């Protein structure tokens, strides 16, 4: 099993309304050092394969096809060996 | 003229009813697993929250089996109208340029807004006056249309902007864009909901002309074809 972790973020050139609102709220709470907040998504995938190279190519394809809208979002991913879950063969 | 109104899990039925109420043309509700749309003169992708808007609005629906048939119909020149979530699905599927962000206010906005008809020469707007101001309701949380500058320049030069928000921009859309048409001129997407403005009792009947326009366009095309045969 391979665990893939995908981070999806809104492109720098695109305004992130949610990040802007969180930024104002943090500043209102006295966190004056906050200059910018960008809010994205964190996706965990468990892949039934042991082949790292193949897994990487597939994860990339999953991102481009469904998980990420590349018009407005960037992404990066990490792959690691996943622990076999109890009861899962 | 025969309409096919697509139904995804989470679509709503107002468009289907509006076709009956405004122009009384035959219409089918077509489940999203259908793979043949060749019998329809116009395909409507209605509003709602297909697949609960999971991942992104329209992201999962773009891969429903029916969308291959929609792409084929679009290429063949069939009239296609995407309303609200239907517009989002069309952008995700690559049939219209750009995409959507969350409303800049972070709020779901549900109210009547003023629109300017920027292009009255599309199949869905021929019954409007040039520059006509109309009142149509919106109901969306992700209606903030976004495209890059090159795409926006293309939308301008090809006259692809069909509707703009007049006075207030309710969602932060680039260039106040509320509706666009594809380059070929047969696929229109709009965030406001004309099917909810088809009777004075609903507060406005300015949406009626969307439906009368497409019927007139189809009839003129159909009559010309019949006459030449």
Describe the structure.
The complex is a heterodimer of chains A (89) and B (229). Chain A has 89 residues and is an alpha+beta fold. In chain A, 31% of the residues lie in helices and 28% in strands. Chain A has one domain: 2-Layer Sandwich (Mth169, Chain: A). Chain A contains two helices and three strands. Chain A has a three-stranded antiparallel sheet, covered by helices on one side. Helices cover 25% and strands 24% of the residues of chain B. In chain B, helix 2 links the parallel strand 3 and strand 4 (79-83). The chains are: A alpha+beta (89), B alpha/beta (229). The A-B interface holds A 10, 13-15, 17-18, 21, 66-67, 69, 71-72 and B 55-56, 59-60, 63, 92, 98-99, 101-106, 144, 146-148, 172.
Q: What structural class results from the helix and strand content of chain A?
A: alpha+beta
CATH class of chain A: Alpha Beta
Helix and strand run of chain B? EHEEHEHEEEEHEEEH
Helix content of chain A: 25-40%
User: How many H/I helical runs of chain B?
Assistant: 5
Q: In angstroms, what is the radius of gyration of chain A?
A: 17 Å
Overall body shape of chain B: globular
Counting DSSP E segments of at least 2 residues, the number of strands of chain A comes to 3
Q: What does the average pLDDT of chain A come to?
A: 92
Strand order of the largest sheet of chain A: 2-1-3
Multimerization status:
heterodimer
Q: How do you describe this structure in short?
A:
The complex is a heterodimer of chains A (89) and B (229). Chain A has two helices and three strands; from the N terminus they run βαβαβ. Chain A has 89 residues and is an alpha+beta fold.
Reconstruct the topology from this structure.
The complex is a heterodimer of chains A (89) and B (229).
Chain A: E1 2-10, H1 17-28, E2 41-47, H2 52-67, E3 73-81
Antiparallel strand pairs in A: 1-2, 1-3
Chain B: E1 3-7, H1 14-23, E2 27-31, E3 42-45, H2 66-75, E4 79-83, H3 85-92, E5 99-101, E6 109-117, E7 133-140, E8 144-146, H4 149-157, E9 161-165, E10 177-181, E11 187-190, H5 208-228
Parallel strand pairs in B: 1-2, 1-3, 3-4, 4-11
Antiparallel strand pairs in B: 5-8, 6-7, 6-9, 9-10, 10-11
């Amino acid at each position: 099993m391979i665990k893939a972790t995908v981070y999806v973020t809104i492109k720098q050139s695109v305004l992130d309304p949610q990040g802007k609102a969180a930024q104002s709220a943090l500043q209102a709470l006295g966190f004056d050092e906050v200059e910018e907040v960008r809010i994205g998504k964190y996706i965990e995938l468990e892949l039934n394969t042991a082949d790292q190279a193949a897994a990487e190519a597939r994860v990339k394809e999953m991102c481009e096809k469904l998980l990420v809208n590349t018009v407005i979002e960037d992404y990066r991913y990490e792959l690691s060996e996943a622990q076999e879950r109890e009861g899962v063969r | 003229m025969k309409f096919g109104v697509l139904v995804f899990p989470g679509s709503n039925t107002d468009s289907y009813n509006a076709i009956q109420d405004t122009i009384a043309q035959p219409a089918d509700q077509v489940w999203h697993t259908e793979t043949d749309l060749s019998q329809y003169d116009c395909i409507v992708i209605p509003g709602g929250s297909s697949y609960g808007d999971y991942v992104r609005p329209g992201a999962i629906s773009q891969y429903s089996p029916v969308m291959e048939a929609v792409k084929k119909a679009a290429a063949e020149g069939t009239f296609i109208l995407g309303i609200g979530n239907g517009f989002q699905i069309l952008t995700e599927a690559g049939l219209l340029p750009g995409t959507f962000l969350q409303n800049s206010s972070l709020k779901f906005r549900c109210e009547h807004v003023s629109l300017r008809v920027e292009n009255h020469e599309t199949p869905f707007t021929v019954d409007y006056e040039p520059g006509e101001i109309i009142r149509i309701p919106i109901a969306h949380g992700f209606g903030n249309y976004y495209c890059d500058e090159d795409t926006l320049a293309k939308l301008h030069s090809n006259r692809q902007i069909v509707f703009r928000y007049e006075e207030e921009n309710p969602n932060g859309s680039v260039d106040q864009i509320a509706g666009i048409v594809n380059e070929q001129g047969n696929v229109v997407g709009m965030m406001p909901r004309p099917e909810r403005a088809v009777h004075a009792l609903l507060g406005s009947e300015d949406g009626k002309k969307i439906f009368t326009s497409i019927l007139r366009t189809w009839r003129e095309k159909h009559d010309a074809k019949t006459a030449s045969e």
